[in-house]
Amino acid sequence: MQMSEPFATTVAAVAPVVWLVGAVEYHQVAKQTFEAYNAGEVLLAQTVEGLKRAGDAEILAHQWTETQQQTLGPPRRLLPLHALWSVVTTCLLSSLVIALAWLAHGDEQDRSSGEAMFCFVTLCGSFIIVTAVPVAAALRRVSKSGDQRQALSQEIERLQADARRRVEADQMSPPG
């Protein structure tokens, strides 16, 4: 494979499009991850407030906080995606610069196969990543959302039952 004018022109035209699509997809995955995390934080705050009203909030809030951290997790899971997107962006930008520089020189003698192969691999890899990451994220969300909801519902029911038992025990015990 060697660099040619049609190939360099195609790389120069396609690389920004792939970057744009990838940027939109990355933004969507990050936005959905933060929304899910923020929803968990709101649920945690509401639960702690409910537990404070029921009494003995410190123990129950501590238990709930541990459960919340285990089931929802912070947005740290975006770090691998961020690293991957940084590599893809760097490679796409490099491919674009290589193609534009080759077109600017217009030297038919310099038909570097290494540069052409880099551009080819970058575009193919970027297509795969831009397609696979959103699909994987969607599949992961679908599989985890049911498990998370079930775990959170069970934990909320357990905490509410514990709170009811404590309130009933406090009401039954003679004032001392």
From TrEMBL:
Organismal lineage: Bacteria, Bacillati, Actinomycetota, Actinomycetes, Kitasatosporales
Keywords: Coiled coil, Membrane, Transmembrane, Transmembrane helix
Parts of the chain that traverse the membrane: 83-104, 116-139
Protein name according to UniProt: Uncharacterized protein
UniProt entry tagged with the keyword Transmembrane helix: yes
Domain of life: Bacteria
Coiled coil: 142-169
